[in-house]
Amino acid sequence: MSLYRRLRYQLLRLRQLRGSPHSLALGCALGVFMGIMPVLPFRTLLILLVAAPFGANVIAALVLGTLIANPFVLALWYSLALAAGNLLVANAVTWERVSAMLDDFQQAAGFADTLSSAANVGWDLVVVLLAGGLLIALPAGLASYLLAHRYFSRRQAPAAGSET
Fold first, then answer.
1. Is residue 63 packed enough to be buried (19+ CB in 10 Å), middle (13-18) or exposed (0-12)?
2. pLDDT attached to residue 164
3. pTM of the shown model
4. Of 152 and 1, more confident
5. E strands, the chain, in order
6. What is the pLDDT, as a whole number, of residue 25?
7. In this structure, what are the phi and psi dihedrals at residue 57, rounded to the nearest 5 degrees?
8. What DSSP string describes 105-146?
9. For the chain, which residues make up each domain, given as ranges?
10. How far is residue 125's CA from residue 30's CA, in Å, rounded to a whole number?
11. 140 φ, ψ to 5°?
């Protein structure tokens, strides 16, 4: 299946979801937010943990989270998060430090060495990435909520009007 067909299929899945405009829009916002945040190994788990308590549509969140955090743009999100985080956090992480960390990962002899290299980077990188991710993901999530709510409200309005 081509990339274009997969994208169309995922968008069709979103259009066919049932629920209130608020729940669907909240799911879309959560998916966009988590898709942009640099939390790659935990993205799906976080979506599942956060969606239910807030009443967000889980399927919408998972679909958009996957579309937003696809392999083609993942490096872009992490680069933007690092740049934005360096603006917010005083203890900035340079590209040279990130490059050195990646070199250490490549030269690691095994899993234990890889974990040791990751621990040496410290929390500085994590804090910078999360701060930068929040700076980018919050406005994007809010904008996607507003756009999705408007879209799903309009989609359901004709159906509601024809029932009377």
1. buried
2. 46
3. 0.80
4. 152
5. none
6. 94
7. -75, 115
8. HHH--SHHHHHHHHHHH-HHHHHHHHHHHHHHHHHHHHHHHH
9. 3-159
10. 24
11. -65, -40
